[in-house]
Design a protein that fits this description.
- The protein is mostly helical.
- It contains 5 helices and no strands.
- It has one domain.
- It starts with 5 loop residues before the first helix and ends with a helix.
Length: about 90
């Protein structure tokens, strides 16, 4: 059994390297879609509940309006940090 490491990756054929990048991209989009579904649940919370976790309704809507290639939780985390700094 061969272990995969960065040295092996450098010696891959271009087709294998492209397939690897593509599957990584697809995996990221799937993760983003799952996180988007979970972030959509935040939109069902009251403004008071969102404030308790350091978010606003606009933060949630902005995160959900981002392209599917962007993880909404990264945006929500940044918004939360900014909101806490401002408070």
């Amino acid at each position: 059994m061969t272990n995969f490491n960065s040295t092996t990756a450098r010696h891959q054929s271009p087709a294998i390297a492209a397939l690897s990048r593509f599957t990584g991209f697809v995996g990221q989009v799937r993760r983003n879609l799952r996180n988007r579904r979970d972030a959509a649940a935040l939109a069902e919370m009251s403004d008071h509940q969102l404030a308790d976790i350091g978010l606003t309704r606009d933060d949630v809507h902005s995160a959900l309006a981002a392209p599917y290639t962007v993880d909404p939780f990264i945006q929500l985390g940044a918004a939360r940090r900014n909101n806490i700094r401002r408070a």
